[in-house]
Write a structure and sequence with these properties.
The complex is a heterodimer of chains A (268) and B (285). Chain A contains twelve helices and no strands. Chain A is elongated, with a radius of gyration of 22 Å. Helices cover 70% and strands 0% of the residues of chain A. Chain A has 268 residues and is mainly alpha-helical. Chain B has eleven helices and no strands. Helix content of chain B is 79%, strand content 0%. Classes of the chains: A mainly alpha (268), B mainly alpha (285). Chains A and B meet through helix 4, helix 5, helix 9 and helix 12 of A and helix 1, helix 5, helix 6, helix 7 and helix 9 of B.
C-alpha cells in the first residue's frame, strides 16, 4: 500500500509539473484555432488531435489541468481555513459559541450545495471574462464547502481539549491563546491536512459537474469540466476515442487522490 | 418538536443565504435585454431604472416572499411563464420517485456488498471496493452520460440507476468500515465459534448494533442524492426538479432557483430529522 501511495504521489507530481509547464510543452496555446485542421486526428503536430474549432486538444488538456489542479487546492485551502476557524473555535470554546456554530454547520451540510452553486453561477454577468469565471467558480466552491471540514475539526478539537496534557497545561496556568497555539493546533494539524487533501478531489468533481452543465469555467479557457462537456457529442467520441483523454486523466488524478487519502467522509 | 423547529429554521436560513448570495453576485439585476442590440440606449436605461425601483433589499424582499409562500404563492417563473408552485407540483413527484428509487437501490446494494465483505468474502470485498473506488472517481454527470449511452432505460429509471451508482460507493465504504469493525469484535468470534447461524449473526451481532451509526448517514445520503439530481436529470432527460433548476439557471430565472433551493433544503432537512428520530429510537439506552 505504501508503494502504491508513493506511485500515486509521483504520478500526481508529474501531472502537476506537466500542467505547470503547459505553455512550454504545448506552445500552440489553448485558444489558437488552426482553421485548416478542424477535428484532426492525432499526429506529430497535434498529439491528441484538434476539436471542431481546430484548437489543439493536447494544449487544451494541459491548460485545463493547470486550471483544475491549481484552483481546486486553492478552494480546498480556503474551505479548510474557514472550516478550521469555525470548527476549532466551536470545539475549543464550547458553550453557546459551539451551539451556534454547530447549527450553522448543520445548515451548510443540509443544503444541497449544487443547487446553491447553480443559483449563484446563474446570476453572473452574461459577459463574464473567462478568468473571472474561474475565480468565481472556485471561490464559491471554497466558500460553500467549509462545513464538512469544520465538523470534523470541531470533534477533533473537543477530543484533544479533554486530553490529560491539556488539563495539565491549564492547571499550570497556561493561557487560552497559548493553549490554542502551542498545544491544540499542533495536535489537530494532521486532521487539518487530511481535510485539505480530501476536499481537493471533491472540488475537482464539483467543477467537472458544473462545467459539464455549461455553468463552470467560461470558454475559451479550458478546465476539466468544459473539456468533459465535449463527451456529450457521442458520435464524435465514438469515432475519435482519443477524445476520452480528459476523462482518462480525470480518472487517473482522482484515483491518485483516493490512494493518497482514503475517503471515508460521507458528508460531501 | 425542537428538532422540527430546527429543520424549519434551517430551511428558512438556507433560503435566505441563497437569496443573499444571489443578490450579492456581480450579475444580479442585469437584464438580458440590456445586451439586445435592438433596444436603444434610452430603453436600456429605463429597464435598469425599473429594476432599481423594484429592488427593496434582501431582507424585505425575502420576508415578502415568505409571506406569499405561506399562502401557496411562490411567484411566477420568468422562464416558463407559469406559477412556480404549479411547476414544482408537476416536477417534484418525478424527482422524488427517481431519488427515492436510487437511494433505495444504492443503500441495498451498498449494505449487501458491505455485509458480504465483512463476513470475509474476500473476492466480494476486493471487487466491490474496486467498483466503489472507480465510481467515486467519476463525476455524476459522466455516470449519467454513460447510462444515457447504454440507452436501455427510460429517463426516470436511468436517473434512478445513476443515483444508485452515486450512493452505492459511499454507503459501501462507510458500511464496510462499521460492519468490519463489528465483525471483528470478540463476542462475534465467540458466537461464530459456538455455531450461531449466519442469519442470526448478521441480524443480532452486525446489523442491529451498527444501525444507529448507519442511520445517521441516511439523512446525509438524501442531501447527496438531491445534489446529484441536477446533472443526472439533465443528461438522462428526466423531467424533474433538477432539470428544471438547470433550465432556470440557463435562463437566469432567479425566483425559481431560490424556490427550488428552499424546497430541496426542506426535503433534505426533513429526511435528516426522520433519520435522527429513527436513530434515537433504535440507539441502545
Amino acid at each position: 500500500m505504501i508503494s502504491l501511495r508513493r506511485t500515486a504521489m509521483g504520478l500526481l507530481a508529474a501531472m502537476y509539473l506537466s500542467a505547470l509547464l503547459a505553455g512550454w510543452l504545448a506552445p500552440a496555446g489553448y485558444a489558437r484555432q488552426f482553421r485548416d485542421s478542424p477535428a484532426a486526428k492525432p499526429s506529430a503536430f497535434f498529439w491528441l488531435g484538434t476539436d471542431e474549432l481546430g484548437r489543439d486538444s493536447f494544449a487544451r488538456l494541459l491548460h485545463g489541468s493547470r486550471v483544475s489542479l491549481s484552483l481546486a487546492p486553492a478552494a480546498a485551502a480556503l474551505a479548510t481555513v474557514i472550516g478550521a476557524a469555525a470548527g476549532i473555535t466551536a470545539g475549543y470554546w464550547g458553550g453557546w459559541i459551539d451551539t451556534c456554530l454547530a447549527r450553522v454547520m448543520d445548515l451548510f451540510l443540509s443544503v444541497p450545495w449544487l443547487f446553491l452553486l447553480l443559483s449563484v453561477r446563474a446570476v453572473l454577468p452574461l459577459n463574464v471574462r473567462p478568468l473571472q469565471s474561474v475565480g468565481i467558480t472556485f471561490l464559491l466552491l471554497g466558500l460553500l464547502g467549509w462545513a464538512g471540514p469544520a465538523r470534523v475539526l470541531r470533534s477533533a478539537a473537543r477530543e484533544i481539549g479533554g486530553e490529560d496534557f491539556m488539563r495539565q497545561a491549564r492547571a499550570r496556568g497556561c493561557g487560552r491563546l497559548r493553549l490554542l497555539t502551542h498545544h491544540l493546533l499542533p495536535n489537530v494539524a494532521p486532521v487539518l491536512a487530511a481535510q485539505f487533501w480530501m476536499s481537493i478531489p471533491i472540488f475537482i468533481l464539483s467543477e467537472a459537474n458544473l462545467g459539464f452543465l455549461g455553468l463552470g469555467v467560461a470558454e475559451p479557457l479550458p478546465s476539466w469540466g468544459n473539456l468533459l462537456a465535449g463527451l456529450q457529442n457521442v458520435d464524435a467520441v465514438l469515432s475519435c476515442p482519443w477524445r476520452l483523454a480528459p476523462l482518462a486523466l480525470l480518472l487517473l488524478v482522482m484515483a491518485c487522490f483516493h490512494l493518497i487519502v482514503p475517503m471515508e467522509d460521507f458528508s460531501k | 418538536m425542537h428538532s422540527f423547529i430546527t429543520v424549519v429554521l434551517t430551511a428558512l436560513l438556507g433560503g435566505w443565504i441563497a437569496a443573499t448570495l444571489v443578490r450579492r453576485s456581480p450579475g444580479f439585476g442585469v437584464d438580458e435585454r440590456e445586451f439586445d442590440a435592438r433596444y436603444s440606449q434610452d430603453s436600456v436605461r429605463r429597464i435598469r431604472q425599473e429594476a432599481k425601483s423594484s429592488d427593496r433589499g434582501v431582507l424585505p424582499d425575502y420576508l415578502r416572499f415568505l409571506a406569499r409562500a405561506l399562502t401557496g404563492d411562490l411567484g411566477m417563473s420568468a422562464s416558463f411563464h407559469r406559477p412556480v408552485a404549479a411547476l414544482i407540483a408537476e416536477r417534484l413527484p418525478e424527482t422524488l420517485a427517481s431519488a427515492g428509487a436510487g437511494l433505495g437501490l444504492g443503500w441495498v446494494l451498498g449494505m449487501l456488498c458491505a455485509l458480504a465483505a465483512a463476513l470475509s468474502r474476500r473476492a466480494i470485498d476486493l471487487s466491490a471496493g474496486a467498483l466503489a473506488a472507480f465510481l467515486l472517481c467519476l463525476p455524476s454527470s459522466v455516470l449519467a452520460l454513460g447510462m444515457g449511452l447504454a440507452g436501455r432505460l427510460d429517463g426516470k429509471k436511468a436517473a434512478a440507476a445513476v443515483i444508485a451508482l452515486v450512493i452505492f460507493p459511499r454507503v459501501f465504504r462507510y458500511a464496510r468500515a462499521i460492519l468490519g469493525r463489528a465483525a471483528g469484535a470478540p463476542h462475534v468470534w465467540m458466537a461464530r465459534a459456538r455455531g450461531v447461524g449466519t442469519g442470526r449473526l448478521v441480524w443480532a451481532h452486525l446489523l442491529r448494533p451498527s444501525a444507529p451509526a448507519m442511520l445517521a448517514l441516511l439523512g446525509v445520503s438524501v442531501s447527496v442524492a438531491f445534489s446529484a439530481v441536477i446533472p443526472i436529470e439533465v443528461l438522462c432527460d428526466s423531467p424533474g426538479l433538477g432539470q428544471m433548476a438547470w433550465q432556470a439557471a440557463l435562463k437566469r430565472d432567479l425566483p425559481m432557483l431560490v424556490d427550488i433551493t428552499l424546497l430541496v433544503s426542506l426535503v433534505a432537512g426533513v429526511s435528516g430529522l426522520a433519520a435522527e428520530i429513527v436513530r434515537s429510537s433504535t440507539a441502545p439506552s
